Amino acid sequence: MALRFTSEQRLDDRVLERGFTLGEIPGFLWTPSSAAAPTPLILLGHPPIGLHTMYPRLVARARHAAADGFATATIELPGNGDRPLWPALEEARAELRRALRAGEPVGPEIIDPLVLPLVDTAVPEWRAALDALLALPEIDGPVGYSGGIISIGVRLAVVEPRIVAAALFAGSFVPRAIFEEARQVTIPLHVLLQWDDEGNDRQAALDLFDAFASKEKSLHANMGGHAGVPQHAADAAGQFFTRHLK
Amino acid sequence: MALRFTSEQRLDDRVLERGFTLGEIPGFLWTPSSAAAPTPLILLGHPPIGLHTMYPRLVARARHAAADGFATATIELPGNGDRPLWPALEEARAELRRALRAGEPVGPEIIDPLVLPLVDTAVPEWRAALDALLALPEIDGPVGYSGGIISIGVRLAVVEPRIVAAALFAGSFVPRAIFEEARQVTIPLHVLLQWDDEGNDRQAALDLFDAFASKEKSLHANMGGHAGVPQHAADAAGQFFTRHLK
């Protein structure tokens, strides 16, 4: 798929933001203005609520990474934002909302049709984005993956050898099949867990962390709900990438 | 109890080490040579294997803290090192070794007589050390506590208001009574857990972390056994104290 830049703006003296399309998929690339040599790249994962909604948080992460000398990029998830509506995804979301409202347990019959099709569709798109981004002269390996839907991060860590380190956010429901894939992950991992995350099963997150085969993996658990990740936890993730991508 | 300096040496241009006795208790104080103003203090906890054995590791921690602008101090635990033998402690240790060799579960009948008398005796001694150290012109509050027997750290966090932040190492057996005390801890905590610690119960460590009432608490779990704490985990503990003691 061809990458075509659609917009360009300097966020300040330090970061250049370029909007792009990859085929029909919208995305952003942020590069540190100061970079003399090609810079390592961090793919910024995000929750399935659309790039427009996520934009301020993504820019904050991009600025932080640029200060550490990293380029960052992201693409829209299938069925989200300006991409075509995906009826099966909408149905699966409605089913999850119904179960949460009813106070029912969220089991595989809800999680699997919600998450697995997203993973199956998104992962090849992120790999295609990687092909296109690494072809740019200003971007270089190695590549990190950070945040977003943890099941996408797990699959990418298994199938994409150019990703050498991942900071994962244990903050979404994980299909059983992904636990099996986790046993094949061997790259260094930095796993963030919000101890009282309302949209997450703490024991499942601990089990998933245990399942990873990586020799270097760290679990950073902090107080608070899904959106309450403290600044020092973001700083620690930055240090993790500095250790592994430089 | 009176603090009397017994030795003094510069470890290099950066750290001054002074041996002392507090009554009959031996200890060390390390201060950054560069410090112009009174410096905050971190009490360095350590496992009950004697200060002589721990010395190289304590000096490494003291150098690290001095580079961050902190004074550090430690005292010998009762029944350890050059302090008088404590027969009840030796019996409790022999009982633990016997159970571990026999592959028996380590229950309260072994943990409580091993740990609770140490906590009951050591905590007033560490508080007396704090009285003496804070009376020195070069030492100032606030005070942090770091590492060592986690039950001592928990008790100190409950009873000693001058300790405003603690980095605890979930690497030793914890009596049930200490879980109850943990519910009274409200200071910021940074808890380190070695995921495959052979001398520690992982689930108990997670339960203890859950029990703390602190609004700011972070659990940092890393791969490896008891002695395998990675350097980046030590760095993260240093950053925790920089956030809370400065």
Automatic annotation (TrEMBL), chains A, B:
The keyword Hydrolase applies. GO terms for molecular function: hydrolase activity. It comes from the Bacteria. Keywords: Hydrolase. This is Alpha/beta hydrolase.
